[in-house]
Model the fold of this input.
Amino acid sequence: MVARGRFITFEGGEGAGKSTQITRLAARLSSLGLNVRTTREPGGSPGAEIVRHVVLSGAASALGADTEAMLFAAARVDHVDSVIRPAIEAGEWVLCDRFTDSTRVYQGASGVSPALIGALERLALQDLAIDLTIIVDVPAEIGLARAAARRGDGVTDRFEGDSLEIQQRRRRGFLEIAAAEPDRCVVVDGTLDVDGVEAAIWAAVEGRFAETGALAQRPV
Ligand code: TMP
Done:
């Protein structure tokens, strides 16, 4: 029987630098001989990528925040069932760029009730547990400036263009989740340089998994 893999999610506001860090953590875990898979939400499976286009283009915003939340959940059900759960059962370490906390924070900030968000979360997760959530925290002004620099002349997606006040509320939302669930979440200072953030994330991963032997070097 293959040992179960692990599920690590990355969360944070716009321009937090999650993607760079996911690539770096994946390389580090792979160098230990672990099987690593990186993925993202919304998306990560063919069906969910279609929904990604619908929600991020803003095409669904006229349907209201509850419907948008249901679309994110529909994408997540497909992603979990077709990619994440099978990978973890096959022993892979799955690193996911955004997951359920983004729904709590973004759709929560758009007025979706905690009851609906909770129900959608249970629907998508079933018995799936997140082993570790890394919240990359940056002040909203810094994140927005980074996202704008990365975008260049490109257009903002459905959520990037929201006001500074909304982005600040989202930042507080992520920090509140971290405070409420300290066993699952670690907050990392995303204003450090890229190497500094990587080191902080690695310390969190070692702290969480080293003593269980899960990180033990395997033959590559
Ligand atoms: P990203 O590619 O920058 O991560 O863009 C995804 C956007 O979608 C980001 O603005 C956050 C938003 N989002 C939600 O609003 N709810 C969700 O459940 C997820 C996964 C993302």
Observations:
- The two ends are 19 Å apart (CA to CA).
- The CA atoms of residues 190 and 196 lie 9 Å apart.
